[in-house]
Amino acid sequence: xxxxxxxxxxxxxxxxxxxxxxxxxxxxxxxxxxxxxxxxxxxxxxxxxxxxxxxxxxxxxxxxxxxxxxxxxxxxxxxxxxxxxxxxxxxxxxxxxxxxxxxxxxxxxxxxxxxxxxxxxxxxxxxxxxxxxxxxxxxxxxxxxxxxxxxxxxxxxxxxxxxxxxxxxxxxxxx
Length: 175
Ligand SMILES: [Zn+2]
Ligand SMILES: [Zn+2]
Hints:
Layout: E1 3-5, E2 15-22, E3 33-36, E4 40-48, E5 53-66, E6 73-86, E7 108-110, E8 113-115, H1 117-127, H2 156-159, H3 166-174
Antiparallel strand pairs: 1-8, 2-4, 3-5, 4-5, 5-6, 7-8
The structure holds zinc ion (ZN) (2 copies).
């Protein structure tokens, strides 16, 4: 939950900067995520505009991810920008309208309190890589013996001819 008191923002251009370390979000249910290693660190600037309130900032968190290729667990620094604008004519949806929320602003104003929890949550979900790999050139796992090939090579490639190169070998025989 991140709620910001905006009572002090009276004139257009007034702004406040807020930094907070929020408790670890519950992300371990998502595919590819093993755990969350750090608090969720958020810094946002709230600016009063002629229309409403502009929220701009960024978040950082360290995740423990599972490599999409070799299934090894690795640390991943997730950081991304967040931003949205609250317009006062937007009303909070009822519970049964939550499905329609996806394309709506996620910032909710109650009195002088701006609740940007939804915006942060959505920004994290968008920023998590779908197919994260432990390193750019992860070699994956040998489909024959299960060896993680980043650590050491296995014997499978040596014992068996590489099928991908077989047509090439035929070509050489013909010449
Ligand atoms: Zn990997
Ligand atoms: Zn192997």
